[in-house]
Amino acid sequence: MLKKIIISEFGIIMKKEVLKVVKIGGKLIEDDAKFAEFLGDFVALKGPKILVHGGGNLATEITEKLGYKTQMFEGRRITDADSIRVILMVYGGVINKNIVAKLQGLGNNAIGLSGADGLSIVSKKRPVKEVDFGFVGDVEKVNSEFINSILKQNITPVFSAISCTEDGLLLNTNGDSVAAEIAKAMSSIYETELYFCFEKKGVLGDAEDDDSVIGIITRDKYQKLLEEKVISDGMLPKLHNCFQALENGVKNIFLGDFRLLKEESVYTKISN
Ligand SMILES: Nc1ncnc2c1ncn2[C@@H]1O[C@H](COP(=O)(O)OP(=O)(O)O)[C@@H](O)[C@H]1O
Ligand SMILES: CC(=O)N[C@@H](CCC(=O)OP(=O)(O)O)C(=O)O
Q1: By three-state DSSP, how is residue 187 classified?
Q2: Ligand 1 centre from 72 Cα, in Å?
Q3: Which of 18, 50, 74, 187 is the most buried (most CB within 10 A)?
């Protein structure tokens, strides 16, 4: 058990157990060698852990093969009635089940979930403002007690980027948002750490230079990066989610590539 123990002059204070919430992006899932290395490191993590996966790339590929168009706006997919069917098949089906099976093969018991399972991630359809996102949800509630009941059985929950309304409507939800909302909700029970594993070694100061990783991003730095337009596309919701999580109880947040779970990896840390 990874519990932090602090010895003060008044005796021993037991701190909350550490929970790691790890998000893996769709592009990494498709790279067999990198994904295998990532899964090995994930399985080796001690203590309770949760895996959240994306799959945007594969969803785009299948959608286009079927002759439908893909439209993104500020890093989020505009999801019409045809797209949501593909999303459910790809995220909830082939990707989620393959990851769970791979974890089982590595001796790590796991269970694949969408937000509808145990009504674990409740969302609301994104209101139509400047853009109508269609079947896209914003998370409103995470059922932390249900998720904890799985962790307590030593089973790793593996979440796809699918949420569900109270009325039973399945909605596509940005995977980074799902991870951040789970981490926020679990912070009432655990000391929570959030890891975003994606294509790059961290947040880059220069999009052309893969080695220009910014070590620490504070809120002030984040505002500057936004103003200077150093961040774009999928990095916009990713960093927005990071600061939301930091302000809502998540202790530590890291962004990096498939090696992020290794001790010696290069990464960006999000800080106040
Ligand atoms: N400053 C930046 N540093 C790193 N990546 C950036 C930056 N600005 C934009 N990006 C883009 O954001 C992408 C990460 O977002 P996204 O594709 O949604 O990740 P994920 O693979 O987790 O889904 C990177 O692959 C990169 O193309
Ligand atoms: C609403 C929305 O944008 N949902 C995302 C969910 C998948 C995801 O986040 O996948 P990656 O992590 O691989 O980008 C999408 O459909 O692309």
Answers
A1: coil
A2: 14
A3: 50
What's the rounded Cα separation, in Å, for the pair 218 and 230?
15
Report ipTM for this prediction. 0.97
Residue 139 Cβ contacting ligand 1 at under 6 Å: no
- How far is residue 35's CA from residue 24's CA, in Å, rounded to a whole number? 9
Residue 248 to residue 238: CA distance in whole angstroms: 15
- CA 104, CA 96: separation in Å to the nearest integer? 12
Cβ-contact 115, 122 below 8 angstroms: yes
Among 21, 24, 198, say which to mutate for ligand 1: greatest number of ligand atoms within 8 Å of CB: 198
* CA atoms within a 13 Å half-sphere pointing along the CA-CB vector of 9: 0
- Average pLDDT value for residue range 243-267: 96
CA distances from 90 to 16, 36, 95, 132, 197 (A): 36, 20, 6, 22, 20
Give the pairing of strands 110-113 and 76-78: unpaired
Q: Which domains does the chain have, with CATH numbers?
A: 19-270 (3.40.1160.10)
CB of 256 within 6 A of ligand 1: the answer is no
Mind listing the pLDDT tens digit for each residue in 196-249? 999 999 999 998 999 999 999 999 999 999 999 999 888 998 999 999 999 999
Which class for 229: exposed (0-12), middle (13-18), buried (19 or more C-beta within 10 A)?
exposed
11-37 average pLDDT score: 92
Note the pLDDT of residue 1: 47
* Structure tokens that stand for 223 in this block: 């505002």
How far apart CA 231 and CA 38 sit, in angstroms, is 25
Reported as a pLDDT band with limits 50, 70 and 90, residue 75 is confident
